[in-house]
Amino acid sequence: MRASDEERYTEYVTVRLPALRRIAYLLCGDSHRADDIVQNAITKLYVHWRKAQAADNLDAYVRAIVVRAFLTEQRTGWFSRTRVVDEPPDIPVRGPDIETSQVLHTALRRVPPRQRAVLVLRFLYDMPVEAVAHALKCSAGTVKSQTSLGLATLRKHLGDMNLLAER
């Protein structure tokens, strides 16, 4: 890679790294795995930097790489080698209602990975159906059905959590 390309790549990744970590964390629910996903994604981005620079929307292109890295990790089984700890890591949560945010993140982690990816892209990143379909390399109909299934699963888990909280 030419020095000028490498400099642009470094600048881009430096600025976007927090946003990339945020989407990876929302997808996997673990800060260490999020770092691994982002590392895989930015490595792929480095390899394909010339092609990426030519994309109409570089942020969407890179976001798609992160989502695909997450989905690939889910298929390969790395996620099954988790570490058991006494307490969950202390993760700062922004916003006025920390408890609701934590409940939502917990419920979101229980949604299957593909549905979770669709929900994160559609509702947290406010992407239209067609853009999500392009990012995930599937049809708009698949995105719509995964959205419906994902929301139903999320509602079920949120309902289960509310029942537990009432006890």
Automatic annotation (TrEMBL):
Domain named RNA polymerase sigma factor 70 region 4 type: residues: 102-154
CDD domains linked: Sigma70_r4 (cd06171)
UniProt keyword annotation of Electron transport present = no
Q: What is this protein called?
A: SigE family RNA polymerase sigma factor
Mention any Pfam family matching this sequence. Answer: Sigma70_r4_2
Q: RNA polymerase sigma-70 region domain location, by residue? A: 17-76
The family line of this record is: Belongs to the sigma-70 factor family. ECF subfamily.
Arranged from A to Z, the UniProt key words for this protein are:
DNA-binding, Sigma factor, Transcription, Transcription regulation
What domain of life does the UniProt record list for this protein's source? Bacteria
Taxonomy of origin reads: Bacteria, Bacillati, Actinomycetota, Actinomycetes, Pseudonocardiales
